Give the backbone structure.
Amino acid sequence: MMPPQVDDPWAEPEPVTPPRRLLAVLAGVSLLALGSATVALASSPVAPKPDVVAIEAYCTLEQQGAHQLSEDLRRRERTVEGREHAADAQRAELVTVEARLTARLAEIEKTRAELKALLTEADADRAERLAGLVKMVEANRPTSAAGMFTALDEALAVEVLDRMNRTKAGRLLTALPPAKAARLAERMTAPITLASP
């Protein structure tokens, strides 16, 4: 007699084979399901974008609101980014304009300094020529200088008289015609008016 067989927990079980008929039925059902799914996909119209369909079909109202909010935030972010780019472009343009204005201002200041130097030089030259004219008039006799003074511009005549020795200037005024001498004396004593800038 054979000893009773003890179940070995580590032994492999014998394979169970399903009946053939069951396998054939399962295969047929699988093919039928696959065929109907293929026909349904082929006959359906073009589906809209999957994310829109998914949102409309499966999302709750809260999820749709959250999606709309995120879309609004993205749109606003793009708007803000556009404004930032525009502001950056304006800043760059302002920096360029400022640099041009600074360069132009430097040119103007340089020209102003050159003009001031030229005016100072011209004033010094005029003062030197005026001093020479004063010496020449003082060196002449009052009667001979009076002929020149009658033809001289009154503003220049007043400047020469102001720079002359007072005694010599007085003698010259007495040698001039009385109307001319009176006008020159009046201008010499008139208050000084400064020209407005």
About this structure: The two ends are 142 Å apart (CA to CA). The mean pLDDT is 77. The helical segments are 20-43, 50-58, 61-139, 142-151, 154-163, 166-175, 178-189. The first helix runs from residue 20 to 43.
